[in-house]
């Protein structure tokens, strides 16, 4: 719907507005500043009422473009009324200037919080009063709270600047007369067309596409970020505007419908353009209305409300917000399709010659086509593959798949003309193509390519081919998961996982994944691994468990791709168990023998273990930037090596007592620069669990630390070590043992802003706690991280020694922080006696918040539970923490009533309902009891 087809009359009472403004500025005796001040409440009321009506109409008709046009019209009227009042009663010479809208406002569309871009055109012979009139207008607009981007120039200045500045040229391209001396605007448009636009199409197109590419790179170069920028992101409004600027500049059109008449777009593609524009404007306007500001990032905390405002409803397997975001990403993909189609049309016109841009845009030179060895269907055009004739796909639809295969083999870019024809030929990919042995052979060859399989898959996905060829994949295209853990849509995640696999396969990840780099060359079933990686999340968005549903899909799909029965069963198992290794490594105690035996029973063979290791790495790597770190790699390697021992029959049959004795003697031998008495005295401090689970290097370091502390006569001490490869910083605490010690340390870490990744908890034979807290690294530079760790250590020492009160420091840190209401994760507590032979395992799952770990461990202490080890795992906004505990006499918790009490207390604190139940203070604030003097321990802790 064009701007002039909308009824704007009910938005503002123009007669009343003009009369009120006329009244306050007409008095000649009234000072200028008083006139400005008197205009403000009148104009502000009209703006507020008009925008509120526009908001209600948006909720009613759902049209984003109509809303943007209404707000633009409201702004026009405010400026016109202000201009007329200024010219009549303040600066009469104002009627010799013109006020024009430029940029986005020039298109007649405006979001509620957008800048207002104005161009004040002056005649060649201008006066100070003309400029003062402009200043008066601007000051009133600024006082009203509008963000006004403005320029005051003559027509000659505009033309001169537009020739040298592409930003100014783009702004003038969208110029629109608002009020004042219209002849000046007409003169600018005429001269701009003749003196700037004529014969400069290639230059403008190259600049705009380069600008777009730079913007995409800055925004992450993917349209599938789960918190996209609606204005500047890939597939957003700015991309649509760039398309229209290019079309308008080159084809000299005013509306997208004119591109249909010129044959640039089909009618369906023009409707796609308009629908995308309307949808993106609806989202943007809703965002501005909801936040009360020019918010362009569609963040998690507003996605749910936007989805509700736009009328989305939940469906089985997908919430309303996930359906809304899937629609958003499909629209973003459509914008990419339109970009390719327009570039293809421009290339056909041979409209552009721009060095370095021939891969993406247009060349003035005549096409130079070359044969591609091994094919008659496709030819090369300046490094890009295109069709030998327009009917290639119609004659043989399998050629759509073959097109990408040849591109991969020859290392060619894709010609936009071929992509345009492909987009218009997607319906040719039917069941016959999907079941074609040749098509599936070609696809499997691309998927397992030694070159860049992720690039080919992404190109197939962008063109819509991948989802048509594998309909199950098509169901997860543009699907987002409403959580803070996954950074990309499901389809983008799967393609990035294949990219991570290719990196390992090609030996380019030795520094990041030393074990996977060593294992990968010995993988015999490469096809199995690539297929499993591509399909592991293909069943997301369904009501049932996506691992089980994905396994069923794989069982049906693998034979079609050419895999035999054995390979198919292996893919099925990998998809069904693709979370097993990750969850075991991150949430279970790897030093508990039963953890390893349970895991080994499910894996059963070394071949499966190797495949599962690499699949797990690729899955985590593809979640998003910063999700993978060396610490997770270390956990996976630890689990792999322990399981390898068991599967290969190398697990030690020597008794635990004998192994501990050997470890103790090794420690004594390593302390060779000490006296014999000190060596044995300090080695005897450590219990068997410590000696069997901590490396000899760390044992020596810890023992020297204890001895040094004793020499200084300190009851409390900390030691810090950073590890850049594992992205972990260790803080080791030596203190008198205390039931609440871990809780206090966790609270101190929370107060210092540190995220705990793991906790190694031990007690010495003389009654002291030797706890090592592993926190996520924050700084890349070692010195910076050491300073941070020192600050955290001092906080721990100050809290434990009583110099600082934990409630106060946590309260200071969390002051003003709002509770996370974006996500709803019902608290869950699972108590199991089957995961360990000696202890009870308590697994809690809930929404993360500051001080949560401190609260949970304090509750466990209140319940007289002894924590033997803890695994702290965060998945975005969700935490899964696992505690290995016994009662005070070292036995498992088996009483059902006792388990029920533990569950109730933990759920209460996780839901922040524990408040005064324990401490009489807000949740997240723990008052530690005084630390006792060191006494023989009443318990023995093992290491996590």
TrEMBL record:
Residues 730-811, 841-920 form the ACT domain. Keywords: Hydrolase, Magnesium, Multifunctional enzyme, Nucleotidyltransferase, Repeat, Transferase. One of its GO terms (molecular function) is [protein-PII] uridylyltransferase activity. Its EC number is 2.7.7.59, 3.1.4.-. Residues 921-944 are annotated as: Disordered. CDD domains: ACT_ACR-UUR-like_2, HDc, NT_GlnE_GlnD_like. The keyword Transferase applies. SMART domains: HDc. One of its GO terms (biological process) is regulation of nitrogen utilization. Residues 490-606 form the HD domain. Residues 1-373 are annotated as: Uridylyltransferase. It catalyses: [protein-PII]-uridylyl-L-tyrosine + H2O = [protein-PII]-L-tyrosine + UMP + H(+); [protein-PII]-L-tyrosine + UTP = [protein-PII]-uridylyl-L-tyrosine + diphosphate. Uridylyltransferase (UTase) activity is inhibited by glutamine, while glutamine activates uridylyl-removing (UR) activity. Its cofactor is Mg(2+). Modifies, by uridylylation and deuridylylation, the PII regulatory proteins (GlnB and homologs), in response to the nitrogen status of the cell that GlnD senses through the glutamine level. Under low glutamine levels, catalyzes the conversion of the PII proteins and UTP to PII-UMP and PPi, while under higher glutamine levels, GlnD hydrolyzes PII-UMP to PII and UMP (deuridylylation). Thus, controls uridylylation state and activity of the PII proteins, and plays an important role in the regulation of nitrogen metabolism. Has four distinct domains: an N-terminal nucleotidyltransferase (NT) domain responsible for UTase activity, a central HD domain that encodes UR activity, and two C-terminal ACT domains that seem to have a role in glutamine sensing. Belongs to the GlnD family. This is Bifunctional uridylyltransferase/uridylyl-removing enzyme. It comes from Neorhizobium lilium.
